[in-house]
Amino acid sequence: MNGTKSLRRTPIFVGEHDLIIDDKNRLLIPAQFRKKIVPEVHGSSLFVTLKKMSPEYGFIPWFYSEGFFCELVDKHAPPVLTPGKKQLKYTHRTMSMADEIEWDSQGRVVLPPKVLFEAKLGGELCREVTLIGAKDHFELWKRSQWIEYRTTLIDESDEIEDWAQGALGDQPATDTAAGETRTSDAGTGASGASEAQSGARSPEHS
């Protein structure tokens, strides 16, 4: 399956939803997001990974539909009989540090303890969160951090629009808008592997 066909089958998530992580570490996935995921097409579960946005924001949980997550993994590390050392590390890091979750009849998912720990969410740390649509995935932010970051995005609207025009034209686009930083191969992030040729991002725990 080529990148174009893959993207056409990928749900597109938009919007922002203020939510609460309950005392059982459950999070309600909004119906707006759930209805985009067709089990016969995208699979019946979600995969959650962690992305390090920047030192001040720390780790942000990213959620993918099952089908799209599997396509991304195969695209960035195609199945081979004897993978090289770097590909093997990528596979070990990506697959071992991701979690597969399913929502219950009310649309709630139980957030894995290791995700909550790394993202400093749940319990006494932070229960007030905002779930945002981010094209091919959705992200779980601390509400206070999202408000701050959202303000930054609005303030930098002109710079972001200039980047977008460059990405669509002949000028090479650089990923520096809104203060986002690239991660390295250290820890669990893939250096520069945030986007495939199709524009899809690699699932990563940076």
Contiguous helical run count: 8
Task: Please write the string of helix (H) and strand (E) elements.
Answer: HEEHHEEHHEEHEEHH
Average pLDDT rating: 79
Largest sheet geometry: 6 strands, antiparallel
Q: What's the overall geometry? A: globular
- In CATH, what is the class? Alpha Beta
Oligomer: single chain
Tell me the count of domains. 1
CATH architecture: 3-Layer(aba) Sandwich
| Beta-strand share of residues | 15-25%
Q: How much helix is in the residues? A: 25-40%
The fourth-level CATH homologous superfamily is Transcriptional regulator MraZ domain
Distance between the termini: 27 Å
Q: Could you characterize what this model shows?
A:
By secondary structure, the chain is α+β, with helices and mostly antiparallel strands. It has one domain: Chemotaxis protein chec, CATH 3.40.1550.20. The chain contains eight helices and eight strands; from the N terminus they run αββααββααββαββαα. The strands form two sheets. Strands 1-7-8-4-3-5 form a six-stranded antiparallel beta sheet. Strands 2-6 form a two-stranded antiparallel sheet. Strand 7 (128-133) and strand 8 form a beta hairpin. Mean pLDDT is 79; it is low at 1-8 and 176-199.
